[in-house]
Amino acid sequence: MYVTCLDLEGVLVPEIWIAFSEESGIPELRRTTRDEPDYDKLMKFRINILKEHGLGLKEIQQTIEKIEPMEGAKAFLDELRELSQVIIISDTFTQFAAPLMKKLGLPTIFCNTLEVAENGEITGYKMRVEKSKLTTVKALQSIGFETIAGGDSFNDLGMINASKFGFLFRSTEQIKKDNPNLPAFEDYGELLGYLKECLAK
After folding, report:
1. How far apart are CA 106 and CA 118, in angstroms?
2. What local confidence, expressed as pLDDT, does residue 104 receive?
3. 187 annotated active-site
4. CATH: 3.40.50.300, 2.60.40.10, 3.40.50.2300, 3.90.1470.10. Which one for 16-64?
5. Which phi and psi angles does 108 have, rounded to 5°?
6. Of residues 9, 15, 91, 156, which has the active-site annotation?
7. CATH class of 2-13+69-199
8. Which one of 99, 119, 125, 176 has the fewest beta carbons within 10 angstroms of its own beta carbon?
9. Given 7, 15, 91, 152, which residue is catalytic?
10. Residue 9: active-site member
């Protein structure tokens, strides 16, 4: 039996931090896991920037409320969920993901948690497990599932390469160039066709 594991940001919804960067006018917050492979370094950088500007969870959540899934994402996900068990495995946080999951029809998501002070300041974060995407895929495999995995960023490559079938979706030219063995897609229709072929094997 297959479980399809998908990244969230950049695959089904726009990048939250880029949206907040545009909303807040802070260009430094545009950096994502497409640019920085070290997630801990990236998050500490983000938290420091937020502190410098006196911004917290409330302001980010106000931006998230305005974010809509990418065009065609919900229809793609609905059809895929009829064909396969699907888990979204993301390095985002429960406090960010909840409103977006409603807009995607409440799929299952495994993500992390922010540490937030009473005044709303983001003081840190707690990863669900180390290397959460790869660890989750390996755990699913250990209980008898075959996995199919896809994403767009450096932090997706572990789960993609560990899966029976893996792919890139709307990734960067550099990541595609560095991983020529991985099929790369830009369109949900093409991706769904590929996934149907995988699930039939």
Report:
1. 28
2. 98
3. no
4. 3.90.1470.10
5. -70, 135
6. 9
7. alpha beta
8. 119
9. 7
10. yes
